[in-house]
């Protein structure tokens, strides 16, 4: 349920941030939620007051890592494919406006519609625009128009923007003439984990993705039928709302004993083990920028075949192989790599090195804090100026009253 949050007061108050646009804390749903699980405790440890907004029934503390000083607020909304982001974003923005944090971190440009609410209350916003949502195949013309308009609102009303890849930043500069900060996602390295039950290390093909067309799942499923003749294929993910792709995955796993569908895996340790021991991980995402799953797979040393996009090439550079989004091309690229163990060892080492140097959570969280601090300090200075002006006015009024008496 929604709860009352009191705004900070006085010149010695700590900096405060409201995080809007995720499913809550701690949640294991997607990239935004992964980022918040790392960023919220980081900010608290550095003296921030952090309030994370979320949705009913979407948070669980699977690994006991929830920071007790991160405040959470659940607001109402409509849990549907088309309206969930907009409706929960609206109620969270209204609630944040009621207590007026120093700064709001807003995830997803679809929430651009509600940025004027924050602006009206003098709350600066740092907006992670996410990917190019209006280009996703899963949306119809009306939804694409809604997202495109949301992007225009974000460009107009967002105080400062964050892009998770340089290629996304380039598009926003081109389309909306807005610059900002490039802050990617991070990955967690891990000590060696046990081989997942029923599998042999280095001898299975893995895909981890939400079941939407732009993640190349349909093409991968066609490739999987051929790959499964030689190696086990493990599929992790779901659509969240059922649908044709999920039905195809279920049918393939039911009729082919060498194909396993694990659904959505919330346990990081289990998911990390799957990446760590995969012979090849296929990454088919095409529309986002820096994808959290890709960075995490790199940090764990998975040999990677990725869909050939400007975003995946920016993240992987030379630390992966690439394939066009056709089933035969995907199957051939995975097959070649599965049969080339020296190349797999080479790519594994390169991916780990690149993740450590360029995609650590420490550097990601530090970059967010620097951006938030700049906005919060501007907000605090404005409040202090207003308080000084109000005090001067009260003092002048009192002096006039005294003179008249």
Strand and helix layout:
Elements lengths: L15 E5 L10 H15 L3 E6 L16 E4 L9 H16 L3 E5 L7 H6 L4 E4 L12 H17 L2 E4 L2 H11 L4 E2 L22 E4 L8 H11 L5 E4 L7 H12 L3 E3 L6 H10 L2 E4 L8 H8 L4 E4 L2 H7 L4 E3 L3 H12 L2 H18 L2 H44 L1
Parallel strand pairs: 1-2, 1-4, 2-3, 4-5, 5-6, 6-7, 8-9, 8-11, 9-10, 11-12, 12-13
Helix pairs in contact: 1-13, 6-7, 6-11, 9-12
Give a summary of the structure in a few sentences.
The chain has 405 residues and is an alpha/beta fold. It folds into two domains: 16-186, Rossmann fold (3-Layer(aba) Sandwich); 205-358, Rossmann fold (3-Layer(aba) Sandwich).
Give structural attributes.
46% helix, 13 strands, six-stranded parallel β-sheet, alpha/beta, Rossmann fold, 405 residues, seven-stranded parallel β-sheet, 13 helices
Description of the structure:
The chain has helices at 31-45, 84-99, 115-120, 141-157, 166-176, 217-227, 244-255, 268-277, 292-299, 310-316, 327-338, 341-358, 361-404, and strands at 16-20, 49-54, 71-74, 103-107, 125-128, 160-163, 181-182, 205-208, 233-236, 259-261, 280-283, 304-307, 321-323. By secondary structure, it is α/β, with parallel strands linked by helices. It folds into two domains: 16-186, 3-Layer(aba) Sandwich (Rossmann fold); 205-358, Glycogen Phosphorylase B (Rossmann fold, 3-Layer(aba) Sandwich). The radius of gyration is 23 Å and the shape is globular. Mean pLDDT is 90; it is low at 383-394.
